[in-house]
Amino acid sequence: MKFPIVAAYAASVLSTAGLVAGDPNVIQVRAEDLQVRKHGGHSFKISQIFNHKYQHKVKGKGIRDVAKVYQKFNMEFPDHLRQALIRVFGDLGLKVPGNINALNNGLFGPSETVGNQGEVVSTPVQFDVQYLAPVQIGTPPQTVNMNFDTGSSDLWVFSSDTPAKQRNGQKIYNMTESTTAGRVDGHVWRISYGDGSSSSGNVYTDKVSIGGVEVEKQAVEVATHVSNSFTNDAASSGLVGLAFDSINQVSPRKQKTFFGNAIEDLAMPLFSANLNKAEPGNYNFGFLDTTEFVGPISFVDVDSSKGFWQFEATGFTLPASNCTESNNKTGVFQSVPHTGIADTGTTLLMLPQPIVDAYYTQIAKARSDNNYGGYVFPCNADLPDLILHIGSYQARLTGDLIKYAPADTDDFATAKWCYGGLQSSQGFPFAIYGDIFFKSQFVVFQGGELDKNDWSKGAKLGFAAKPGTELPKETKVAQDILPINNVTSILSRRRTGGASSRRTD
Ligand SMILES: *[C@@H]1O[C@H](CO)[C@@H](O)[C@H](O)[C@H]1NC(C)=O
Ligand SMILES: *[C@@H]1O[C@H](CO)[C@@H](O)[C@H](O)[C@H]1NC(C)=O
Ligand SMILES: *[C@@H]1O[C@H](CO)[C@@H](O)[C@H](O)[C@H]1NC(C)=O
Ligand SMILES: *[C@@H]1O[C@H](CO)[C@@H](O)[C@H](O)[C@H]1NC(C)=O
């Protein structure tokens, strides 16, 4: 076995490491070897809270989540998706949002709608999120609940500048009530979406505190206009973008994210996402909680050039395959190299078509159906696991995570068809590892330390199983962990760190 030299990585926070060969390079770090970098540095856990306005019983949930991904990555809805959305709104007796019609040139006139509009007072939550996290802005602190999004880089919030008619009960940040709020003159922000809508506004700096870690002058982007989909989500006051600073949408000068500002003060230059199925999860900043994952953490390089937490994945294994004898791929690694991004702000797991097709081929009667906007299958099917390979790391998604939403009714109890949490990323520039993936994996977002002024240089993503998602015992792990006492260059850094990974200040 050949061990790569990772001198640069030795300068990183993870002061002891086992190295494994692989493509992409995977560096495994044992939990007991995790070190704090900065004594007295900050660390905190921020627990999610359930969005009590979350509408899990709304028909067409799957397709609305797909639409949200198109919106987020500023891609126009394909025709079949647009039509399926119009159908969903019609079924619900709702007015089709103007922005769908706007894209619908030729199919419908500009004001044409479907469904029984008379019964509608307002459109429902279209793109709501299930879990939020509390954020404090200003002096004295104003607490608002926001969505942590590793797929964008703006901290934007409903504010006293947001017109009343674009608000829907959201808690707002009122700049005039904060003694530390200051306008960043001449700076504005605007985020456009693929369906033609956008959110935009002015820029302030203010004290922002998350879990007790304070950034004195955080750019807070206050909305003067929000698109419908955000107006409709009454419990969420905005987003905390946690991707790289380069895709921040403030002009003329881009602003730093909360993590970009806080990183210098953190005990370890990282945060972790621990999301769960059907219960609130948490984010940790500055430390790793060893009770949240099992086994070593496997770190891979991040390509931050597009501003996302982008990494290379290599393929998949179907651990239990329902196929013919002649075409039996059970337990066989199948190579589908692809680029993915780790995005907590996307609900679904969107992977290359060959992986998605191979997965659903195992399930009797599963089919890709334009009416539902993607793969559906009989709700009574027993879904097999899926193993995704990121170099030598194997992430096990349990089948239950892929049974995502009822498709033909609004309730699992009555639905015959269920919508898959795994869908195709065809047409997107990369695969999107969204919440379905996060619910099976503990994921570490580690800032790089190669360049003091640019934490994107040398950034890494770490993956580990969560309790219950370990690989089955019989699964052969591709590489062994190198004994720590063989990594002398990294070992020498051990002495600088403290003993434990968890700190609170
Ligand atoms: C913001 O705070 C000011 C001062 O307390 C108050 O007059 C104003 O009504 C508030 N704006 C909103 C939209 O709540
Ligand atoms: C496929 O291969 C696996 C493992 O060798 C075996 O257990 C299974 O029965 C095979 N399935 C079919 C349909 O041949
Ligand atoms: C496996 O596939 C066959 C043929 O499509 C189907 O009859 C059978 O029900 C499937 N089994 C499961 C568990 O999905
Ligand atoms: C360290 O690894 C090298 C191979 O890279 C091996 O030759 C050597 O024996 C190892 N030393 C120890 C102490 O394990």
From TrEMBL:
Keyword tags: Aspartyl protease, Hydrolase, Protease, Signal
Domain Peptidase A1 per the UniProt entry, residue ranges: 131-464
Taxonomy, superkingdom: Eukaryota
InterPro entries reported for this sequence: Aspartic_peptidase_A1, Aspartic_peptidase_AS, Aspergillopepsin-like_cat_dom, PEPTIDASE_A1, Peptidase_aspartic_dom_sf
Signal sequence region: 1-22
Segments passing through the bilayer: none
Biological process, per Gene Ontology: proteolysis
Active-site residues (renumbered): 149, 343
GO molecular function ontology, one term from the record: aspartic-type endopeptidase activity
PANTHER family assigned: ASPERGILLOPEPSIN-1-RELATED (PTHR47966:SF2), BETA-SITE APP-CLEAVING ENZYME, ISOFORM A-RELATED (PTHR47966)
Family as reported in the entry's similarity comment: Belongs to the peptidase A1 family.
This protein's name: Aspartic peptidase domain-containing protein
Native source species: Neurospora tetraspora
